[in-house]
Amino acid sequence: MKKKLILVTGGAGFLGSNLCKVLVEQGNYVVCIDNLYTGRKENIVDLMEKENFIFINHDIIQPINLDTVFSFKSGDISITEVEQIYNLACPASPIHYQKDPIQTLKTSVWGIMNMLAIAKKTNATILQASTSEVYGDAQITPQNETYHGNVNTIGIRACYDEGKRVAETLLFDYHRMYNVNIKVMRIFNTYGPNMDPLDGRVVSNFIVQALRNDDITVYGDGEQTRSFCYVTDLIEGMMRLMNSNDTIHGPVNIGNPGEFTVKQLADLVIELTGSKSKIIYMPLPQDDPCRRRPDITLAKEKLNWEPKIQLKEGIEKTMQYFKEII
Ligand code: UDP
């Protein structure tokens, strides 16, 4: 396979670092762009030693100069040679994206505009990490890509949801106006190694709490559902979309259709860790979606993709990761 110059924004984050690892293993030249707001250097320390990987501390809210030259150990490569851009940069956990909602919106909207400018200039294919949050508190289940969603535009989740929705619009407008080759994936809840123990997501919270025998914090009555995809499955789907036929633009749902209540997840984590933790109930955050489950018919048809790792196996692998780092 021909080696490519690939930009990954948010490359030090949970998904970005897992993606960079695979791209580097394939021998591509990978430029990881991250401002380390939620991304972590720990996630990329091993990659930093590779000659085909470089890290650039940059906030994508600021434009990237098209005269930029990336200095790899084996030589310089101009940004004009970039072939693929994965735009993953944006805090994704409610506690992080709600901390500075205006910054979150700028990251999604100004960030994608800056990346689209590069894609337009270089003819690179650009993949946007969109989200199941574009469906908001969905009134249909499972959610398929034709559903237009139910987002509270003035609620506390809107900075993330609306930012990602505008980003999708911009991608399709750049495609229609300038023929930029775009790929939009809608990512459903994902978990696995390189999650930040302080991320505040349900999977990381529950596993860390269980390993420490702390109380397990279920928000609301725990009857709300999520569908959890193991990270290697998600990265495989993402790369298949990026490398798909030029006529495929998405949006495509990538997630695991296995649907679980938050209470079921808590029980499973307690069982698998053998923890003495007790479940406690806390208030449900505002606008927390009731049901979330992807319809992945399109991903199956167009990308020949479906997840392989089911929840029990994925939680066991993720437990191992957290045991090593906390
Ligand atoms: N949640 C919970 N306890 C926690 C963290 C989250 O019960 O310690 C709930 C949260 O209210 C939501 C679900 O788990 O209903 C998934 O939350 P997460 O933040 O992981 O993802 P998102 O809400 O963005 O899907």
Descriptive account of the structure:
- By secondary structure, the protein is α/β, with parallel strands linked by helices.
- It has one domain: NAD(P)-binding Rossmann-like Domain (Rossmann fold).
- Helices cover 37% and strands 20% of the residues.
- It is built from ten helices and 15 strands.
- The chain has helices spanning 14-25, 45-48, 94-97, 101-122, 158-178, 202-211, 231-242, 262-273, 297-303, 311-325; strands at residues 5-9, 29-34, 53-57, 69-72, 75-78, 82-87, 125-131, 182-187, 190-191, 216-219, 225-227, 229-230, 252-254, 259-261, 279-282.
- The strands form five sheets. The protein has a seven-stranded parallel sheet, sandwiched between helices. The protein has a two-stranded antiparallel ribbon with strand order 4-5. A two-stranded parallel sheet has the order 9-12.
- A hairpin with a 2-residue loop joins strand 4 (69-72) and strand 5.
- The longest helix has 22 residues, at 101-122.
- It is globular and about 55 Å long.
- The model has no long low-confidence stretch (mean pLDDT 98).
- Residues 93-94, 189, 201-202, 205, 217-219, 224, 226, 262, 284-285, 288 line the site of uridine-5'-diphosphate.
